[in-house]
């Protein structure tokens, strides 16, 4: 139950941050709604397509599209106040990353996938929506160049899988995984923890 509540909150928060990105690109209202849906539901969609898991999450639960579009219109209406909510959105995003990762792992586990696929499915669920958002906004995806994000999803997914393997009580495992994933992501933001960057600026002749 707790995981589902966090999931819905995270879906709305992701849709709202996407709407703001659309606003910075001067998109029309249709574009805002599309970007909101792609960002909030893109991770689950990519996971389902990769795993062959049908129906897709938003086809099976169409009300998720309504949540995304409603969040987008709320953002349009309250855009002037959004700058003051930067940290709440970052915290909700960190919470959502852990929750999306767990949900993605669960889908793969229910399909009987191998451990590495379970972790990858969790990671895809957590990060693919943001990658799609940045690509549609013609930007280098933040997950490839900013503070630790995909790494946090991988760690969270691994911990969750290990917990399931050792029969840790499910509610305790969910809370523990969310707490660790949330703490790691917030730490990465506060202390600007990043993966080493590859820089090559010489031309091939």
Overall description:
The protein has one domain. The N and C termini lie far apart (59 Å). The mean pLDDT is 95. It is built from 8 helices and no strands. The protein is mostly helical and 205 residues long. The protein is globular and about 50 Å long. The chain has helices at 2-24, 29-51, 57-60, 63-77, 86-110, 115-136, 150-165, 170-190. It is found in: Cell membrane. Belongs to the UPF0126 family. Keywords: Cell membrane, Membrane, Transmembrane, Transmembrane helix. Pfam families: Gly_transporter. It is a multi-pass membrane protein.
Seen as an oligomer or otherwise, the chain set is: single chain
Approximately what portion of the residues adopt beta-strand conformation? under 5%
How large, in whole angstroms, is the Cα Rg? 17 Å
Counting helices, strands and paired strands, the structural category is mainly alpha
Shape verdict: globular
Count the helices. How many? 8
What is the number of strand segments? 0
**How many structural domains does the protein architecture include?**
1
Helix percent reads over 70%
Average pLDDT, to the nearest integer? 95
Major sheet, described briefly?
A: none
Residue stretches low in confidence (pLDDT < 50, at least 5 long) are: none
User: What string, H for helix and E for strand, traces the elements in order?
Assistant: HHHHHHHH
Distance from first to last alpha carbon: 59 Å
GO cellular component, one term: plasma membrane
InterPro entries: Gly_transporter
Subcellular location: Cell membrane
Family: Belongs to the UPF0126 family.
């Amino acid at each position: 139950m707790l995981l589902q509540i966090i999931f819905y909150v995270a879906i709305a928060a992701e849709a709202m941050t996407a709407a703001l990105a659309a606003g910075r690109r001067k998109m029309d209202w249709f574009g805002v709604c599309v970007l909101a849906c792609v960002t909030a539901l893109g991770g689950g969609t990519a996971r389902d397509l990769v795993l062959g898991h049908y129906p897709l999450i938003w086809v099976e639960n169409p009300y998720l599209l309504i949540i995304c579009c409603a969040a987008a219109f709320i953002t349009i209406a309250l855009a002037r106040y959004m700058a003051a909510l930067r940290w709440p959105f970052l915290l909700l995003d960190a919470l959502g990353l852990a929750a999306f990762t767990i949900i993605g792992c669960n889908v793969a586990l229910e399909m009987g996938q191998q451990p590495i696929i379970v972790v990858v499915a969790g990671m895809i669920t957590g990060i693919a929506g943001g990658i799609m958002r940045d690509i549609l906004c013609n930007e280098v995806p933040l997950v490839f160049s900013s503070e630790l994000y995909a790494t946090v999803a991988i760690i969270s997914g691994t911990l969750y899988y290990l917990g399931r393997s050792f029969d840790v009580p499910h509610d305790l495992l969910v809370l523990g995984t969310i707490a660790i994933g949330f703490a790691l992501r917030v730490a990465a933001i506060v202390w600007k923890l990043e993966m080493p960057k590859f820089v090559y600026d010489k031309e091939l002749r």
